[in-house]
Amino acid sequence: MDLIEKATVMHYHRHRITEFKHGTVESLGWRGEHSQQARYQALIKVANLNGQSILDVGCGYGDLKAFLDLHFSDFDYLGIDQMQEFIAEARNRYEGIARTTFFQSDFSTAELPLVDIVFASGALGYRCRNKSFYIDMICKLYNSAQVALAFNMLDKRHFPQHDLLVAHDREEILAFCQVLSSRVECIEGYLEDDFTVLVHRDIVNSDLSV
């Protein structure tokens, strides 16, 4: 994404913070808590996360961390987001919680650490003129994941045209992920206009780039 596109995303969220109040799921861009939680339920089907190291890109306020705490234990969590407001609130919420870290940075340009599981919930839903951006980011996130990558996208079949958000062709995304790994799953039906892709790392695969 170019600087104007990134600035547009940040302006969008700051407007929603003003409209819906700081700390709410609506300020993150979700329609409500139900849609956020439905996506999380799909994402955690990727693996047993007990004892794993986890990277959450576009982490917002760290809501996924709280969700994971309800289902798993003994895991390391690292959240990254470019919004200073989100990271400040996340650090405030989880201050003093062991094995939980937040960084303010743009995941698309940052050097990402190697972890077991990478999650991207909503992070690939913003419009970008560079059509290869999404494929490049999937590849980058997969290369950071030693066990699996789980991400969601808006479904082009059902999501209407939007000035900021963008939907994707599910079959095209799955076809690319199957180049990365022979173990790819798609989950749908939890929301009308969303799908989740689970990409498990092939043991024989080395890091790939496009």
From TrEMBL:
Keyword Transferase listed: yes
Sorted UniProt keywords: Methyltransferase, Transferase
Any GO BP annotation: methylation
Domain Methyltransferase, first and last residues per copy: 54-126
Molecular function via GO: methyltransferase activity
InterPro entries: Methyltransf_25 (IPR041698), SAM-dependent_MTases_sf (IPR029063)
Keyword Cytoplasm among record annotations: no
The protein's name in its UniProt record: Class I SAM-dependent methyltransferase
Organism phylogeny: Bacteria, Pseudomonadati, Pseudomonadota, Betaproteobacteria, Nitrosomonadales
